[in-house]
Design goal:
Elements: H1 7-19, H2 22-29, H3 33-47, E1 52-54, E2 59-61, H4 63-86, E3 93-99, H5 101-108, H6 112-118, E4 122-128, E5 143-148, E6 156-169, H7 171-177, E7 184-187, H8 198-206, E8 217-220, H9 223-231, E9 236-240, H10 245-249, E10 254-256, E11 262-271, H11 279-294
Parallel strand pairs: 3-4, 3-5, 7-8, 7-9
Antiparallel strand pairs: 1-2, 5-11, 6-9, 6-10, 6-11
Helix pairs in contact: 1-2, 1-3, 1-4, 2-3
């Protein structure tokens, strides 16, 4: 059935497509760039269609190349995982998770002890970065947790929960806010599309006159700094109900007018299709689902 498949050329194509570089594919496969180019040209000749656009300093997949890459990458990944599962068990399995610094610090890390207790043989590493990682190109990352308004039709995903923004502060600051205009704490959002003019939207909905009163603003680059400022009594913070949940649960922060909130985006756990069957990834997906449900966050349907 598979006797005529050009497996060497297909492996070269998968590497060059994922890295978008013949030179990088050559380094990964320990061959020369000329060998990679020859393998891909022979594959294109065998198929009868071009797979790459050769540009002056880069290569780009054609539509046919994109179709082949997505099916081939998932198939090779599944084969690699099946082969790995047959080997004698090593001391532990590795799992690389990428997410934002705020989600890691305020939601994920405080709960990870329960994951470690259940899966002591999984070595989990966290990469915290606000830049969006292309999972099709970076095979070192097993799973990402993203905060976004977008859909990801080319990835396997679990939609964890929707988010809303409300106002929180220390008990003393919340009590004072009923008598006088508070200091307002905000965040410089990395993606302004996600939540623009947050305080204005909340004050309009709450019919509070704070914005007309010219309040003092304290602004921070990250959500966890803003929450720490609110915990320290520096003012009220407009914060995600997801990221503030630990602080509210411990009594460090309390909501001000909790019935008033504005919509945010959603959190999703995503991986390359096929990778969700890899045991460490499958275990992490299951644990995430249980933690989201236990925290009382409204979950969305799985993707």
């Amino acid at each position: 059935m598979f006797a005529n498949l050009p497996l060497t050329a297909l492996r070269a194509f998968e590497s060059a497509s994922r890295l978008l570089s013949f030179k990088a594919a050559a380094e990964e496969l320990s061959v020369t760039p000329t060998a990679i180019s020859h393998q891909i040209r022979s594959l294109e000749s065998w198929l009868g269609v071009p797979l790459f656009q050769r540009l002056p300093r880069q290569v780009r997949l054609t539509e046919c190349g994109e179709r082949l890459f997505h099916s081939l990458h998932g198939a090779l990944l599944e084969v690699a995982q099946s082969v790995d599962s047959l080997r004698p068990q090593r001391s532990g399995a590795n799992l690389m998770i990428s997410t934002t610094p705020a989600f890691a610090a305020l939601w994920l890390v405080p709960r990870l002890g329960r994951f470690y207790a259940r899966h002591p043989n999984i070595n989990l590493r966290l990469d915290t970065n606000c830049e969006v990682i292309d999972l099709q190109q970076d095979a070192s990352v097993d799973l990402v947790i993203r905060y976004s308004l977008d859909d990801y039709p080319n990835l396997y995903g679990l939609c964890l929960f929707d988010e809303c923004f409300a106002v929180y502060g220390s008990p003393e600051q919340v009590a004072q806010a009923r008598e006088q205009t508070p200091t307002l704490i905000s965040v410089r959002w990395h993606n302004s599309k996600l939540y623009a003019h947050g305080w204005e939207a909340w004050c309009d909905k709450a019919q509070e006159s704070w914005m007309q009163d010219r309040p003092v603003f304290r602004e921070y680059d990250e959500e966890h700094y803003a929450l720490q400022a609110a915990i320290a009594g520096q003012g009220l913070v407009l914060a995600s109900n997801i990221l503030v949940s630990e602080s509210v649960g411990s009594g460090l922060l309390v909501p001000y007018r909790p019935e008033i909130h504005v919509d945010g985006a959603g959190y999703s756990a995503l991986c390359v299709p096929g990778r969700e069957r890899h045991p460490p990834v499958r275990a992490f997906f299951q644990w995430l689902r249980e933690e989201a449900q236990a925290a009382g966050h409204p979950m969305l349907a799985a993707g």
